[in-house]
Amino acid sequence: MATMMKGQATFRRMQDGTLDDWMIIAREHMAHQKAAAPMQTIDTLRRLGDMTLGFAADQLTHALMTATLARRSGASDEEVVAALCHDIGKVMSVPNHGPIAAETLKPYVSEGIYHAVFWHQHFQGQYYYNHLGKPTDMRMQFKDAPWYGFACRLVDEWDAPAFDPDFDVDSLESFEPEVVKVFSNPHTLI
C-alpha cells in the first residue's frame, strides 16, 4: 500500500495508487499547468525565430503576424492564441506540424479551433499544392464541418497573408496575457 509524503504520492506502480494519491497528483498537475504551460509555450514560440524554412519571414515573425492580424480583426482570445500557435509544431516536425500544434492546443480551446489548426495545411493547399502536384481543393472535404468557416478565416485572413518580414507585428510579450489566460485553464488534465 502506498504511503503519502507531503505533496506527493509514493506508490511505485500505478496499480497501487489510491484516491488520495491521485488527488495529490491532480492538484500538482494543475499547479504546474497554471505556472509552467503558458511560459513553456512562449519559450517554444521563441524557438520559431531560428527557423526560416525558405520563407522571407522567419517562423516566429509569421506566427506573430498571423496573431496580430487575428487580434486586429477582433478575434477572441482563443482564436488569437490559435493563430499564434498554429505552426508551433514546426519546432518538432514540419511535415506533421498541424496535428502537433492542434494536440498542444486541444485541452484549452474549442473543438472547432482544434480541428481548424489540425487541418490548416489542407486549407493552405489552395494556394500552393498545385506547385507540388497535389489537389488544391482538399479543404472542400470539410465544407460541411461546423468549424469550416473558422478554418477559412484562420488561413485566408490571418495565416496566408502573414509572410511579410517588414510587417509591424505585435511583440511576443504582448500576447502573454492571452497565452496565460488560455493555457492556464485546461478543459481537462487527461
From TrEMBL:
Among SUPFAM superfamilies, the record links this protein to: HD-domain/PDEase-like
Q: Which InterPro entries does the protein's record reference?
A: HD/PDEase_dom, HD_domain, OP_Dioxygenase
Q: Which Pfam families match?
A: HD
What range(s) does the HD domain occupy? 61-124
Alphabetical list of CDD domains matching this protein: HDc (cd00077)
The protein depicted here goes by the name HD domain-containing protein
